[in-house]
Amino acid sequence: MDANRDTPGKAPTGSDTGKTDSKAAGMNPYLGLVSSLRAAWLTGKTRTAEHRISQLEALGRFLDDKKQPILDAMASDMRKPPFEVELSEIILVKNEVNYALNNLSSWMKDEGVDKNLVTQLDTAFIRKEPYGVVLIIGPWNYPLQLILVPLVGAIAAGNCVIIKPSEISSSTEKLMAEMLPSYLDKDCFAVVTGGPAETTQLLENKFDYIFFTGNPQVGKIVMAAAATHLTPLTLELGGKNPCYVADESDMQNVANRLVWGRCFNAGQTCVAPDYVLCSAETQEKLLPALRHAITQFFGPDPRESPDFARIISDKQFQRIRALLGSGRVAIGGQTDEKERYIERATTTQEQILAPLLPIVTVPDVDEAIAFINSRERPLVVYVFAANSKLVRRVLERTSSGGFGANDSVMQMTLISLPFGGIGNSGMGLYHGKFSFDTFSHHRACLLRSMGLETMNSLRYPPYSERKRGLVLSTFRIKHTGTCTLL
Ligand code: NAD
């Protein structure tokens, strides 16, 4: 892993990839890097359990050793409170590392499958094979976690990997480029830094798998680049997550859980509840409860609270401030450009990745469902309701990457649940075992014996009616059970 060799035009160092030479010759500046990783992949070293374990352990050590630099980098990028960094960046990745280490040997085992009559004496199984050279591209809002959690899966599955953190969270990008390489096998893992221009050049190369987290527009660019090489990919994209609040809910609990999910990381969370759908009566009860929760969490002047992060960049700040100007602000809404501070606000305008919580009033749950279904499919649908039938109704009649009832964001704490979007919010799954499977090709294997040729010869020409009957009976799957539609 070498942070220097990724900068186009920078002189190669030591046993570097010859990228500058490639550039001078008019070739892609990352060709050398990708080729060197492919050469390492072809040696087979990343396939062994020992190599995977040693790299996962090294990643765990990186998180332990560099905890303070990680806290500092995120403080510098968006003044993210240490509590939030530990919970949503460090521990989350460490859990993935430990979970992968605990389960790797069983995940790597060949999976036996059912056989038909002809293959009874043979061996049939699914082998989880690494894809090869993988590219992981991340966004700025959870700059460490959204690179390293996929990396855990890619390492566990036995791949070589290039990671491309977001250039916008520049302190965390620098930390990963400068500190991570010394922990991992430099032949197999590399960090590339830079923005859209560098990513575009990187994407011109052939990868065996691409894992992208970012916005849907850029997702389309990445998918088009992947299509050039027929590279499979996962897209973890954005969207607006609706939250229906039923009339009979305990409003203070609802408000506490909503405000926590919405204000964590200053609202810059892809699974945060983005807007509330409720009746006008519920809105009347919810607004004071939200106000109370905000004051309880952040004090009378939230700007002074050490527990409220800042907006990542001036560009994002301007976008959010413009939104505030276009809606009726019911709570909060103060801003400070110098600090990129935006007081969490409740407006009637919808938007994501900011501490804003628009409220849209609807007469009932059916209207709420219709509202949700008339828009792009979100990453998460949330519902707050004491009535479990109502929760089930929203679950059954909407579609989204994930679903949460009576809380926000907490589904992310379960490593046993897959994480991913659907439609506009993405495609593919990861976290825990799902990450391992995502970065593994499921290779279908049948190892036949050379015996029983008389039985095998039934399928060879010349065909006959007798052969047809016998062969079909050995392959046929009979419908055994009954299916009752209730
Ligand atoms: P982004 O798509 O702008 O950037 C993501 C990555 O793509 C960065 O590394 C960036 O350098 C690169 N990139 C940007 N423009 C590019 C281009 N034209 N060509 C090639 N590469 C390009 O996303 P962002 O602003 O960093 O992150 C915010 C977005 O990510 C939001 O839409 C949010 O909802 C989404 N997000 C999704 C998840 C999820 O898990 N589904 C998690 C976090 C964020």
TrEMBL record:
<dbReference type="InterPro" id="IPR016161">
    <property type="entry name" value="Ald_DH/histidinol_DH"/>
</dbReference>
<dbReference type="GO" id="GO:0004028">
    <property type="term" value="F:3-chloroallyl aldehyde dehydrogenase activity"/>
</dbReference>
<feature type="domain" description="Aldehyde dehydrogenase">
    <location>
        <begin position="45"/>
        <end position="441"/>
    </location>
</feature>
<dbReference type="InterPro" id="IPR029510">
    <property type="entry name" value="Ald_DH_CS_GLU"/>
</dbReference>
<dbReference type="InterPro" id="IPR012394">
    <property type="entry name" value="Aldehyde_DH_NAD(P)"/>
</dbReference>
<dbReference type="Pfam" id="PF00171">
    <property type="entry name" value="Aldedh"/>
</dbReference>
<feature type="active site">
    <location>
        <position position="270"/>
    </location>
</feature>
<feature type="region of interest" description="Disordered">
    <location>
        <begin position="1"/>
        <end position="25"/>
    </location>
</feature>
<dbReference type="InterPro" id="IPR015590">
    <property type="entry name" value="Aldehyde_DH_dom"/>
</dbReference>
<feature type="active site">
    <location>
        <position position="236"/>
    </location>
</feature>
<dbReference type="GO" id="GO:0004029">
    <property type="term" value="F:aldehyde dehydrogenase (NAD+) activity"/>
</dbReference>
<dbReference type="GO" id="GO:0006081">
    <property type="term" value="P:aldehyde metabolic process"/>
</dbReference>
<dbReference type="InterPro" id="IPR016163">
    <property type="entry name" value="Ald_DH_C"/>
</dbReference>
<keyword id="KW-0520">NAD</keyword>
<dbReference type="InterPro" id="IPR016162">
    <property type="entry name" value="Ald_DH_N"/>
</dbReference>
<dbReference type="GO" id="GO:0005737">
    <property type="term" value="C:cytoplasm"/>
</dbReference>
<comment type="similarity">
    <text>Belongs to the aldehyde dehydrogenase family.</text>
</comment>
<keyword id="KW-0560">Oxidoreductase</keyword>
<protein>
    <recommendedName>
        <fullName>Aldehyde dehydrogenase</fullName>
    </recommendedName>
</protein>
